[in-house]
Amino acid sequence: MNIIAILIIAAFLVTSCNSQNNGERATGQTHEHVDGDGHDHENEPGHDHSKEDGHDHAGESTEKGHSDEIGFTREQAEAAGLETEIVKPSSFRSVIQTSGQIQALQGDEQTIVATSSGILFFTNASITEGTSVKNGESVASISAKNLQDGDPVLKAKLAFETAEKEFRRAEKLVADKIISAKEFEQTRMRYETARAAYEGQANNFTAKGVSVTSPIAGYIKSRLAGSGEYVSVGQPIAVVAQNRRLQLRADVSENYFKQLRNIQSANFKTAYDDVVYRLSDLNGRLLSYGKTATGGASYIPVTFEFDNIGDIVPGSFTDVYLLFGVRENVLSVPVSALTEEQGLQFVYLQIEDEIFRKQEVTPGQSDGTRVEILKGLKIGDKVVTKGTYQVKLATASTAIPGHNH
């Protein structure tokens, strides 16, 4: 009995010991796991971060370094009419940029006036501003029918016929010395006056009334009277302009007064198209510049004259680029090369045959066709000058994030 009791106690002790050892192992494993979560890779012996799982920091840097490159294929470039220009230093004129207006040249337009009193009727309803007319072409007629004062043409005819009879009679009387030479001369003067008045209207008389013709070839600049209105002799009814020569008037701030004497030419762009006209291409010349500010404003007028070989409309407002002096070794690009984003200016550079990159630049003066670049470009850069907008559209869809040279 004592032996059995001893065996039971011994078995209990062995079982308790094994359970304690297993618990210590379990606790040790849990401890190692917890410490492992916060272990230090850099200080842990034998740990090589550069070899772990093929992790490569250099690869990440390379990918980020070329994310601004744009893919634009040859087919896309051909469809867009892509053109480029190599940046190189060249001469560039100093510029004063201001506003101005196109004006008709004095003497290049004439006013059509009424040659008789009566009711005005234009030849046809299509005679409006801009209508082309020929020299001597009838543009209107004036009728005095049913007016209280009567038809002036008929009145002139009667006056002429009466004066003519008196003159023929006076010729006989003066020959017979019945009237004096002085009386005859007075009769002759009345006759000549009546004849001139009648012939001046009779030559232009039609079934509709007295015809009014254009004194020059050109176009109707403005109508000063309307059909159905009463007009008097000498009253202006329309203005005809030829527009062979025009004037460009620029209003310049008085701050540039000292530079005005150095102005040589100008470029300008109208509000109704994007064409930049060069006065040097239009046989243009500087007429004058003001010596004082006009109209109480702090602006001085500068006036040019040029041939109207294009569709330039008198009265239209313009952007004017006054040119003076010449600076050498200036980097510039065509205006078409620049794009704007959030107030910043950019150009697109061709890096490889089908690879482009957007480049921020700082522009300087512009003469309307080219822009001085103060910062952002260097000699030899290949800048997109035509098709810029298409390259810009390709920016979002064709970036090359993994490209590496």
UniProtKB/TrEMBL annotation:
Domain CzcB-like C-terminal circularly permuted SH3-like: 332-392
One Gene Ontology term from the biological process aspect of the record: copper ion export
Gene Ontology CC annotations of this record: cell envelope; membrane
InterPro entries: CzcB_C, MFP_Cation_Efflux, RND_pump_MFP
Residue ranges of the region described as Disordered: 22-69
UniProt feature, compositional bias: Basic and acidic residues: 30-69
Keywords from the named record: Transport
SUPFAM superfamilies named in the record: HlyD-like secretion proteins
Domain of life: Bacteria
Gene Ontology molecular function: transmembrane transporter activity
Family: Belongs to the membrane fusion protein (MFP) (TC 8.A.1) family.
PANTHER family: CATION EFFLUX SYSTEM PROTEIN CUSB, SLR6042 PROTEIN
Protein name, per record: Efflux transporter, RND family, MFP subunit
